[in-house]
């Protein structure tokens, strides 16, 4: 049986994708640096293997026997092209025939201002030059991130500084992105394509926060600020500005540069993309932002 390799299988996206593939009777090779977290996949028949994209050592062996690879973007901004390059080279050497990669909306645009997009664009170029068939999933921002990392501090503070302006974005549930990835891995005809993956409605961040306020019963004042004003806000929280200054083991393992330039990209229209990919590829309608808020509402400050 041909097997599908899932990278980052101990993460939320990877674990869910591996689980769904197993549900469909697919052979799965689950890769992770933390294989001890994958005991449940082992009991269900997955072939769990240790893999670390920071080093090419052993990666080809880890991917041996795999026909397709779900390459889930790693988390270290600025380091991804090197890490992803190691994975792509190993997959090609191991005989993998198709790589499905998780990027972000408008991912093939070299002028996209979001810092994280630089990594995705560089990875896309590596895939296009690799000679291996690819599918690049341009996923919109996760609704779950809005429901937690954005909504919870906004409710607690009663306000939120914002540099997104009235730019629109079709927030998408991670669940839907996983289902699309699984569909692409198990269907024919998606080789050498890019697919926009979005939620069902284009909303601005102010509109999303107004929904949070209404559902929580708490007032949230949205305070428009410049990009520099957003940097100053994150400075006040002790967030490093640059990815290279982040302590990965610290309390805030991300940099404000990513958040500020993401907001800039929304404001300037780079995320204003809505597609029918979720329903077209999975047969199910995409989740609304409100439905995801309902799911996480119990974690909001009372």
Rg for CA atoms: 19 Å
Helical coverage, percent range: 40-55%
Shape type: globular
β content, as a range?
15-25%
Estimate the mean pLDDT confidence.
96
Distance between the termini: 51 Å
Order of helices and strands: EHEHEHEHEHEHEEHEEHEHHHH
Short description:
The protein has 302 residues and is an alpha/beta fold. The chain contains 12 helices and 11 strands.
Describe the structure.
This protein has a seven-stranded parallel sheet with strand order 3-2-1-4-5-6-9, with helices on both faces. Strands 7-11 form a two-stranded parallel ribbon. Helix content is 42%, strand content 17%. The longest helix is centred in the middle third of the chain and has 16 residues, at 115-130. By secondary structure, it is of the alpha/beta class. It has helices spanning 12-23, 39-43, 59-62, 80-94, 115-130, 143-157, 174-186, 205-216, 227-236, 256-267, 277-282, 289-296; strands at 3-6, 27-32, 47-50, 66-71, 98-104, 133-139, 159-162, 168-169, 193-197, 203-204, 221-224.
């Amino acid at each position: 049986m041909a097997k599908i390799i899932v990278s980052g299988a101990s993460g939320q996206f990877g674990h869910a994708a591996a689980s769904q593939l197993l549900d469909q009777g697919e052979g799965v090779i689950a890769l992770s640096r933390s294989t001890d977290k994958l005991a449940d996949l082992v009991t269900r028949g997955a072939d769990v293997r240790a893999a670390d994209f920071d080093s090419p050592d052993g990666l080809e062996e880890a991917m041996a026997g795999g026909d397709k690879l779900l390459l889930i973007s790693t988390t270290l901004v600025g380091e991804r092209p090197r890490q992803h390059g190691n994975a792509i080279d190993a997959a090609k050497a191991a005989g993998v025939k198709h790589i499905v990669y998780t990027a972000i909306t408008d991912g093939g645009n070299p002028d996209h201002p979001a810092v994280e997009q630089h990594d995705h664009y560089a990875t896309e170029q590596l895939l296009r030059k690799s000679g291996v068939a690819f599918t690049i999933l341009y996923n919109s921002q996760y609704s779950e991130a809005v429901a937690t990392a954005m909504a919870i501090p906004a409710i607690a503070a009663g306000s939120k500084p914002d540099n997104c302006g009235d730019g629109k974005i079709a927030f998408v549930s991670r669940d839907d992105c996983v289902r699309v990835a699984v569909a692409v891995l198990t269907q024919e005809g998606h080789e050498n394509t890019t697919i926009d993956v979005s939620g069902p409605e284009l909303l601005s961040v102010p509109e999303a926060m107004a929904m949070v306020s209404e559902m929580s019963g708490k007032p949230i004042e949205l305070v428009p600020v410049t990009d520099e004003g957003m940097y100053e806000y994150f400075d006040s929280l002790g967030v490093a500005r640059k990815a290279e200054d982040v302590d990965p083991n610290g309390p805030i393992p991300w940099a404000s540069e990513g958040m500020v330039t993401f907001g800039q990209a929304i404001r300037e229209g780079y995320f204003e993309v809505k597609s029918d990919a979720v329903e077209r590829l999975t047969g199910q309608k995409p989740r609304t932002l409100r439905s995801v808020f309902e799911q996480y509402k119990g974690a909001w400050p009372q």
